[in-house]
Fold:
Amino acid sequence: MDGEDEVRKRGLLERLAAGPVLCAEGYLFELERRGYLQAGTFVPEVVLQHPEALAQVHRELVRAGSDVIEAFTYYGHREKLRSIGKEHLLEPLNRQALELAHSVAAETEGEAPLVAGNVANTNVYEPGAPDVAAEVRSMFEEQVRWAVEGGADYIIGETFYHAGEARLALEVIRQADIPAVVTLAVPAGGELLDGRSPEDACTILEEEGASVVGLNCFRGPATMMPLLRRIREAVAGPVAALPVPYRTTEEHPTFFALPDPVSDDVVPGGRTFPLALEPFQCNRFESAAFAEAAVQEGIRYVGLCCGCAPHHVREMAEALGRTPPASEYSPDMSKHFVFGTDPSVRHRAASTDM
Structure:
């Protein structure tokens, strides 16, 4: 579109001022399930090896109602590429991830989705280790630079389980003069690994210039919401909430240790994470209920992390009063051959007999 027909694209802060922003994440799990990414290493080589597969996931999530396309550079940092002997692919991977996100955004009718750059936990950060902090900062600096050069609308810093690493990422993003959404991943003990509570860490991040602060990953809706309420009370600005769509519990507050005695004897090592989590998957209605509850709590930036799929996103979008393109195929059980109530269903069997 051009000229008078062009729809103005609002920035992140403008959209947040107008209403909730829905952000679908979870590319690692989704592309692993589809056979384009290796579990364990979880390096996003799919960006270069099968860009058409990644582009299709972007399309499906936008079609389902996501307001954001997140460039798939999660774990696309130097340490991860070094671990598989492909450090030379680091820059091409990051640059192509932004290009793919923009190409799919350009296909969208009406207002285009936002394109977010991404930096994430490096898994090497150590509190009180200046040399390691310098290494981590360097990794963030190159990824942020490529994201900005690639035209990102804002940058997501996510899945930080050390407040110190989150602050490093934020400092680098702010130096690039681009909005930052910074989300923390809270371990089972309820505090970050450097001893700060989620609400204290989010307060600091907001004071240091994050546009949005909050939580993502590790915890499902049930065990993330209590922490989100504390964060909402502690900070003044927008709060982000992106749980994993799994049924975590008070006894098992993260998805790393969910037990499944039914399949323990067939799952290697008896560990359900990350390859045997299906018994704990939240359904689409639970996802929608979380979105509604989060917005009622005053949370403006909502979504899902690892385990997110388009049907979850569509249901969340509809719960927020939207009608994304995928709503054309929202369920209509009135014409189901067993459970339907429409007069056109002629030979409906009694549901009790099925």
